[in-house]
Amino acid sequence: MCYRMPPSKRPLRARLQASAPDDASTSIDALLGFRLRRVNIRLSRDFAAATGDAGLRSGEFTSLAAIAARPGISQSGICRETGLDKSAAVAVIDDLLRRGWIERGRCSEDKRRHALSITASGERALADLVARTRRIEAPVLSCLTELEATMLMALLDKVVGHILDEDN
Amino acid sequence: MCYRMPPSKRPLRARLQASAPDDASTSIDALLGFRLRRVNIRLSRDFAAATGDAGLRSGEFTSLAAIAARPGISQSGICRETGLDKSAAVAVIDDLLRRGWIERGRCSEDKRRHALSITASGERALADLVARTRRIEAPVLSCLTELEATMLMALLDKVVGHILDEDN
DNA sequence: TATTGTTATACTCTATAACTATA
DNA sequence: TATAGTTATAGAGTATAACAATA
After folding, report:
1. Quick check: B37 CB within 7 A of strand C?
2. Kind of pairing, strands A114-118 and A102-106?
3. What average pLDDT does the segment A104-119 reach?
4. Residues 6+ apart with CB under 8 A from B100
5. Of residues B79, B105, B81, B80, the one with CA closest to residue B92
6. What is d(CA A50, CA A43) in angstroms, rounded to the nearest whole number?
7. Chain C positions under 7 Å from a protein CB?
8. CB pairs under 8 A between A and B
């Protein structure tokens, strides 16, 4: 007979665990990728739907936040921070400039670099984006207690920090 | 003066917190997306680099795991589980069939559906992929204790389960 | 009418390589 | 020689709409 799709009441992990022997070497129980991917897909779609046709391109929000956090950062700095490719960063920076959210000045110490900084308009846009993103993420995070959500953020921060250390 | 890129010893969150007032409504401290995105980029690149030219397309590994976990699942079931678009799923399923990792039978109860199941060859491929992915994720997760890693997985499972419930 | 799977298509994202200007 | 930024380009990912078969 065919598998009829019931409402999925348990995550894939739990179902896999039930159907496969508890063998740590072949189980996906300890794999992070599946989980990150699934949550990421959901959040990305909701974000794209909320920002609509005038939506930001991939990495634009993250780059704006990085510039706000580190005024004077260079483009390659953005790439290291966000994981963006340097060729992709060009379009992102161009778009942020076009929107008037950031400014670009040549660096006097190293004329190859652009020193990027956020504008007042960019600050407002960032605050608005953050607020909208919070509203998008809220229903996804609603299944966690406040403590659990805080723990999740802290654990991911630890991993992200480790990645930044390793990749640079 | 210009911002010279030092080795990043703290995650973006911590730096933002230091430079911005602790205003919950405009801080990215409680946002999940940045963190997921950054970790996902790292893992995706490492995975692509490890699988090389004969690499699987996006969503193929997840789909194989979903079929292994739920024999007889339909294509639309895969989409619901993995977040894959139904048009994208076609190419993924085709590729899994071409590799001989899954089999496809028409469903007698609902002739529109394909009943998908994993083959013995597919089981071996899946076990191998899981093992390789564990080796890829290990260095990323090495910054966490075993307890922390378990907690991270459990928290993400809770979120993924919630998303599956909501989206279906 | 709605759903499953399929195709075609357009658009975006990502990575690579080649180039310039600086270091 | 190496790095920062730019451009062009190719390949992969993603989403939409239209369609046939079935419910």
Report:
1. no
2. antiparallel
3. 93
4. B119, B121, B122
5. B79
6. 10
7. 3-9, 12-17, 21-23
8. 293
Instruction: Give the nearest partner residue to A15 out of B8, B70, B166, using CB atoms.
Output: B70
- Helix, strand, or coil here: B104? strand
Question: pTM for this structure?
Answer: 0.89
**Which amino acid is present at A26?**
T
Using one digit for the tens of pLDDT, what is the confidence trace for A59-76?
A: 999 999 999 999 999 999
Average pLDDT value for residue range B36-41 = 97
Taking CA atoms, B156 is separated from A40, A126, A148, B13, in Å, by 11, 27, 10, 19
Q: Which residue has the tokens 């699934």?
A: A38
The span from the CA of B68 to the CA of B102, in Å, is 9
Give the count of beta carbons closer than 10 Å to the beta carbon of residue A47: 18
Q: Is residue B76 within 8 Å of residue B86, measured between CB atoms?
A: yes
d(CA B126, CA A6): 25
Burial class (CB in 10 A: 0-12, 13-18, 19+), A56: buried
Contact present, A31 and B130 (Cβ < 8 Å) = yes
Given the structure tokens 């992915």, which residue do they identify? B133
Q: Is the pLDDT of residue A103 over 60?
A: yes
Q: How far is A80 from chain B (nearest CA, A)?
A: 9
Instruction: Name the residue among A127, A133, A155 with its Cβ closest to that of B144.
Output: A155
Report which DSSP code applies to B57.
P
B3's CB contacts (< 8 A; 6+ apart) are A70, A71, A72, A73, A74, A77, A115
Instruction: Give start and end residues of each alpha helix (H) in B52-119.
Output: 60-69, 75-82, 86-98
Two tokens, residue B166: 């909501």
Structure tokens at A19: 């159907």
Contact criterion met (CB below 8 Å) for B102 and B67: yes
Interface of A with B in 61-90 (CB under 8 A): 61-62, 65-66, 68-74, 76-77, 80-83
